[in-house]
Write a structure and sequence with these properties.
Layout: E1 31-32, E2 35-41, E3 46-49, E4 59-60, E5 66-67, E6 82-84, E7 89-92, E8 97-100, E9 111-113, E10 121-126, E11 130-136, E12 141-145, E13 151-155, E14 158-163, E15 169-172, E16 180-184, E17 189-191, E18 199-201, E19 209-215, E20 223-228, E21 236-242, E22 245-252, E23 259-261, E24 273-276, E25 283-286, E26 292-296, E27 298-300, E28 305-307, E29 311-319, E30 322-331, E31 345-347, E32 353-355, E33 365-367, E34 388-394, E35 400-407, E36 413-417, H1 433-439, E37 443-446, E38 453-456, H2 459-465, E39 470-471, E40 487-488, H3 494-513
Parallel strand pairs: 8-9, 17-18, 23-24, 32-33
Antiparallel strand pairs: 1-2, 2-3, 4-5, 6-7, 7-8, 10-11, 11-12, 13-14, 14-15, 15-16, 16-17, 19-20, 20-21, 21-22, 22-23, 24-25, 25-26, 26-29, 27-28, 29-30, 30-31, 31-32, 34-35, 35-36, 37-38, 39-40
Amino acid sequence: MQQVSVLETNIGSSTTGNSANTQIIFNDAGTLRGDAGLTYDKTIDALYVGGLFSAGSASVGPGGTLVNALGVLGSATITGDLTVATDAFKVISATKDVCIGTVTPTFNNKLTVVGGSGGDAFVTSGNGTRTGYIGTDGTTVIMGGYSNHTLRIHANDLPQMQISPLGIFDWYDGAASPGTRMTLNSTGLGIGGSPVNPLTVFAAASAKAPALLLGTVGSPTYGWDFSVDGATNGNLFIRRLVASVKTDVLEFDRSSGNVGVGVTPSAWGAGTSVIDLNTAGSAAALSSSGTLSIANNAFFNGTDWKYKNTNTALLYQLISGQHSWFTAASGTAGATITDFATAKMVLDASGNLLVGITTSTTERLRIVGNSANDVSCFISPTGGSGVKLLRFAVGAGAGTEVGSISYNGGLGVNYTSLSDYRLKESVKPLSEGLARVNALKPSSYKFKLNGSNGEGFLAHELSEVVPAAVTGEKDAMNKDGSINPQGVDMSRIVPILVAAIQELTARVQILEAR
């Protein structure tokens, strides 16, 4: 470069050196007189400002816009927009928008970043190496970490969630030393800790600690609460949530295996399921031995049956195929129910129905009267004359009817045995009625049971004359050593009595005719 003349025009009062009012001209060497920090290279049309720009092409355009800058050594203030290339970088001063990879902001974003082609990340961060990025595959926004780096999300500058390179998701409690609130890994989802099953919920170590709530939208005041007694035995409770009040409905006893619905299952024997049927105190229980118990106003404490409330009590039990019904007079809440010692009615495994007694070896139906009631069996007809109160049949199923007791429509009943001629054959007149009557041995006697007087026949003697009138065998015994007594049907004697009367009538008529 060659030195050129410098023209100074004294605009202000200063006559020596440069001043604010001095017009300055660069020489061919690009040197400004009096300021070596500002030089101009006319060959490449570049202006160098010491402390601001490095060597290279740079220029300041109209309005202070920096153009063709190669580098910055210090701070600079630019008035107006800043554009680097045509689509690399732009700062729009009027709207205060910043664009990277484009010069046009999108969706009113203050910062618009456009990545490269092929779904490259548009933001990459790291400390010497790439560690994390935010990008897109063209349709999906992707946020992640490179090469075994964990992705973590913070709030309030504290860890809230992270995803490990092994695909483990952890949610934290936001503390400085974070505790895990939930973990999702290859085993499953663990709420309150790491899962040990596909779904694991950890409750607090306190009595009836809530573990799961199924409720209405929002802040639930109605629904179902699943809680665990983490303070003692780990029992599971299902509680009804009504108007924010929780009430025990179902309890699973972990140690005994008992189940209680509305009642505490620990009060029952091991392996017992208990169901409270209503607020009046009805309950059902199924024990490990196969005993089914349904009680009203009663519960079993492992030793005795107790009144739940002050009232009468009922109990039904199914034990080894035998059905038993118990009743108890009114008692005091908490008192032992002594009336449950003996069943009031039993349907045993053989199909025998016993009322007022618990065992039988012979009868299908056995009714024992109550000393407080004069009636052992009461049958009330609902129809008119001919309605059968009892029907007797033989054979399987409904069988063939052989007799009945029927309502006669008035104030009496008819005892009938089948006698239709269509059921009989070889019919002939009955003879020797008078001789057979004379062979009968009527007797008077006293019954050993209560000393009452009686008149009639001894069964084994009557069987010698009228066998059809006697049931059983003489001197027969039951298996338990008691007597198996014979019985007499007096109606079987009536035909013989009629035959005897007819014979006597015939004799009288002969005598009267003489």
